[in-house]
Design brief:
single chain; Jelly Rolls; nine-stranded mixed β-sheet; three-stranded antiparallel β-sheet; binds zinc ion
């Protein structure tokens, strides 16, 4: 399921968020694989220093407060990174629009947070959510293939074994080298400033390729994951 919650953040809240992110621009770091910038402590982008959880962004605290109106109980993980920000400069490279699954969701060192974690993602957690909150004021989109929808694997190894088309994973652009590729028509969700995109299934997706338009402005979104255990949503990134 993909759900779009419009006006999750007001215009003023988005503006304040952008100010906070720009004021911390010295802490942005560039991901060499995707050419996007990260602010915060993402396990996917920063595995070496991951446990140094130094962030305390007002915007992230507000995000948690607002999620508490949609879910019964919401907490930050204390031993995993908090949600953070993804900044894409609208340059000419399409690397930020790489096709991927959010396989990182099953790879977190959950045992640091949950002492009885059994290394079986689906069995341990009751539900999971992937959040993208658009903060910048520009057209934003999300491309995905509905036919790739499934549950995540239980383990990291299992997770990487079940793509529909192996050549489409990590593909930049739309020219798949698999002659028998069945993935031809992706769908697009368009969203605007303040909208929250919520996914609760695994699917092949990318930052909408139309978002890379060569202008100087930045596409800025808050990103995070929520895993539910015993009625509590724990946020991490
Ligand atoms: Zn393919």
């Amino acid at each position: 399921m993909i759900k779009l919650v419009e006006d999750f953040f007001s215009n003023i809240e988005c503006s304040n968020a952008i100010d906070e992110i720009n004021q911390a621009s010295s802490l942005w770091y560039k991901c060499d694989e995707t050419d996007m910038y990260i602010l915060g402590n993402s396990f996917l982008r920063n595995q070496n220093n991951y446990l140094k959880n130094y962030d305390n962004f007002k915007t992230v605290n507000l995000f948690k407060e607002k999620l508490s109106t949609m879910f019964t109980k919401v907490e930050f993980c204390t031993n995993l990174g908090k949600p953070g920000f993804q900044i894409i400069k609208k340059n000419d490279t399409n690397k930020p629009c790489v096709w991927h699954y959010d396989s990182i969701l099953v790879c977190f060192p959950y045992q640091n947070e949950f002492s009885d974690y059994n290394n079986n993602f689906n069995e341990y957690f009751d539900e999971y959510y992937i959040f993208t909150l658009m903060l910048s004021d520009s057209q934003a989109s999300f491309d995905y293939f509905p036919e790739t929808t499934s549950n995540f694997g239980n383990t990291a190894i299992e997770e990487t074994e079940t793509p529909i088309c192996k050549h489409h994973v990590d593909l930049i652009g739309d020219d798949c080298s698999n002659p028998n590729c069945q993935l031809t028509n992706f769908k697009t969700v368009n969203y605007t400033r303040g909208s929250l995109l919520v996914q609760n299934e695994r699917m092949l997706h990318r930052v909408g390729s139309r978002d890379i338009d060569g202008t100087d402005s930045n596409r800025i979104a808050l990103q995070g994951y929520g895993v539910i255990k015993d009625g509590v949503m724990y946020l991490c990134w």
